[in-house]
Every structure is written in C-alpha cells, then in structure tokens.
Amino acid sequence: MPEPMPDHPAAAGTINDEQATSTMVRRLALVVFLEWLGAGAIMPLFPLFLKDHGASPSLIGLTMSAFFLAGLLTQFPAGRLADRIGRRPVLVGGLFVYAGACLACMLPVSIWGFIALRFIQGGAAGAVEVASLALVSSNVPIERRGRAISRIFSAQLAGTAVGPLLGSVAGVHHMSLLFLATAMACTVAAIPVLTSSTIRSHDVIHVQHEPLVRLAMSRALLGAVFGAITLGLGIGVYEACWTLLLNDRGASSAIIALSWTAFSVPYVFFVRAAGWFADHWDRRALAALGLLVSVSFCIAYPFVTSIPILLAMGFLESMGFAFALPSLQAMMTEGRTPRELGRVQGIYASSQTGAIALASAVAGVLFGMHMFLPFLVSAGLGLLLTLALLVTWAPLDGHAHHEAPTTGS
After folding, report:
1. Which pLDDT tens digit goes with each residue over 179-222?
2. Number of structural domains, the chain?
3. Nearest to residue 182, comparing CAs of 34, 67, 66, 70?
4. Are 88 and 200 contacting, i.e. CB atoms less than 8 angstroms apart?
C-alpha cells in the first residue's frame, strides 16, 4: 500500500523542492489551458446559438446558469473526494465527462437538453478546477504559492483568450465543429495527468479508510468566500448579458469573440505579476483593490454605447481580476494541511460558482426588463461583500509567512 504524503509541503523532502513542484505546476497549467481552449471557443457564441434555436433571454440565462449550478452542487463533494482518493482521479474523470457532454451537444437535442448537458459540463469543469488547485496548494510552500496559483489561472485565461478567436473562425452556424474540438481538447488534456510521473508523485495519497479531519471555517476562508461571491456575481452577469449587450450595441459575432479575448489577454500577463505581489505584499489590500476595480467597471458598462470603449474597458477590468485571485487563494490556503485543501478549494469554488449560477439566471430576467439592472444590482452587492471581506480580514496578517527551506536527508 502506498505511504501517505506528508501533511506539510516543506516536510516532503526533495520530492517537493522548487524544481519538482515547478514542473508539476507547468504540466497542470498545460492541462488547464487545453481544457479552457476548447471551452472558450464555445462560450461567447453559445448564447447566440441558443437564440437561433428559439431560446428566450430567460432560457438563455437558465442554460448558462445550469453550468454553474452544477458546480455549486458538485465542487465541494469533488474536493472531499480529492482529499480522500487523490487529485489525479478527480482530474481525469472531470476531463473525460466534459468531453463526453460536448460530444452529446452535437446531437439534435432540445433547449432543455442543452440545459442538461451544460449542467453536466459544469460539474465536470468544477471537479477539474478544485482538483488542480488543491494539487498546487497542497505541494507548493506558501512563499511561492501565489505565483504558482497564478500560473494555473493564467493558463485558464489564456485558453479563454485564444478559444474565442478559434470559435469566431467557425462561427455560430458551425457549432458542431466547436463541440467536437472541445471534446478533443479535453481528451488530450487528460494525457499529461495520466502519464506524468511528476503529477503522480505529488498527488496526496492516503491510507485507505483513514478519516478526514473536520474542516474549520477560519476568518481567512470566510473572507475569501466573500471575495469569491463578489467575483461570481460579476462573472454571472457577463456570462448571461455581455454577449446580449454587445449584440444590442450592434457588434458582430467576430467583435463579440474579440471582446472575450480583450478581457482575457491582459489577465494572462498581469496575473503572474499579481502572484508575485501576493507573495510579497499585503494580500488583503491586493484582493480588495482588485474587487473594487471589477465592481466599478460593472457599474459603468451599461452606460457605454461605444463598442471600442467597451472593449477597452474589458481589457482594463481584467487587471482587477488578476490582482484579486492569487491573493484570495494564498490567503485562504495558508496554514492548511494537504488533507484539508480539497475541501477548502471546494468551499471557495462552490461559493463563486453558486454566485455565478444565481447571477446568470437572474441576470437574464433583469436584462429583459432593462439592460441596466443586472449590472447595477451585481455591482451593489459586490461592493457590500468587499466591505465584508475587509472587516473579516482586518485582524489577520495579510503578508505571507515565509518559511525556511527544508533540505532532504
């Protein structure tokens, strides 16, 4: 029977040295990039695809929210499963299920069928996210964790930056090709997880039937949950309404795809710097500043009629996301043992995903009433939650507690 991995990254000896963990993070980043390359090709055009199939704005919102509702229901169980059996099985299972659901989208199904398939995709994507972040945070020491986590988010956003450009080539009338391409990308993404000895050696393997320690809700985790919900509200509104807003402004399918890229590209570059800042500066201030930037832009979007200005605003807003995420992740994972981190990531991801699901479902209805409403409601709630984060984290030390390196025997 395999021996359990140590409960602290620094205690793992040479297997967890900087070179080994950096290799693991690079390979995980490739996995995440491939998954979101395919998903990103579909995402911007999917609301228009549903509209062409007769879906109303409310049904479009419901379909988009089904993806995130599934994540809400499955991400904590996926995190618990990753704490129990390891991260790799959860990663591989999520990738294969996502691929299968994409292939099923090529079948002649109804709008309700697409809702069901998006639900399955959401559960699979949530499992991949939780397992990959748990694998990173359970192996990388806190003094490098912000930068390591930023690589995963950078890869995710790189996929969503390149994917829409590929999707615009196929166009909304050739979505079957995009569904097939996404299934292939997810299948290819599973190969490094299955074959990499580096990923296998860093997985947290436990003795069979060993009980999990009860997870405590700390101030650090609670504040991160407030941040996750704030980001989730904004993302949910954009998922349901951004394409519709640009379409109302007269934007073409190519411009809509470009707008998603305009948001993602700067994030890919800035999140690496944000990871460094999270390892060296006050993470409380960085997270709050990033959230406030996002809230401010959410308020402004419906008042802007110029498509070029909207694209430029999306470009700038991504900097706020970039600086918030690594700090939120580093703050909530410091001091946690590897056997907790699957569930910690599950709580964080479920909170964000639940907010996305609720916001995208309600946003479609609010947009039908007036295009201003979903943006303003989301921004108002986000501001209150950001203030709650600051109050919750006020007694904590926002700087990373750097630890002395441990040498192997």
Report:
1. 888 899 899 989 988 888 888 877 866 544 566 677 778 899 99
2. 1
3. 34
4. yes
pLDDT for 100 beyond 50: yes
For residue 174, the enclosing domain spans 9-206+217-393
Q: Is residue 283 part of a domain?
A: yes
The pTM of this model reads 0.74
- 408: alpha, beta or left, given left = phi > 0 and alpha = psi -120 to 50? beta
Distance CA 229, CA 347 (A): 11
Decide: residue 369, CB within 10 A, 0-12 exposed, 13-18 middle, 19+ buried: exposed
Please tell me the distance from the alpha carbon of residue 208 to that of residue 255, in angstroms, as a whole number. Answer: 53
Could you give the CA distance from residue 59 to residue 323 in angstroms, rounded to a whole number? 33
CA dihedral for 41, 153, 137, 144, sign (positive or negative): positive
**What is the Cα–Cα distance from 397 to 142, expressed in whole angstroms?**
14
Asked if the structure places residue 4 within a domain, the reply is no
Please check whether residue 289 is in contact with residue 319, taking contact to mean a CB–CB distance below 8 angstroms: no
Q: CATH number of the domain that 90 lies in?
A: 1.20.1250.20
Backbone angles phi, psi at 217, to 5 degrees: -85, 105
Q: At 54, give phi and psi (nearest 5°).
A: 95, 10
| Angle subtended at Cα 240 by Cα 237 and Cα 242, rounded to the nearest 5 degrees | 75
Residue 406 in domain:
no
Residue-level pLDDT at 406: 39
Greatest extent of the chain over all pairs of C-alpha atoms, in Å: 66
Q: 221 in a domain, yes or no? A: yes
Would you say 15 and 197 are in contact if contact means Cβ atoms under 8 Å apart?
A: no
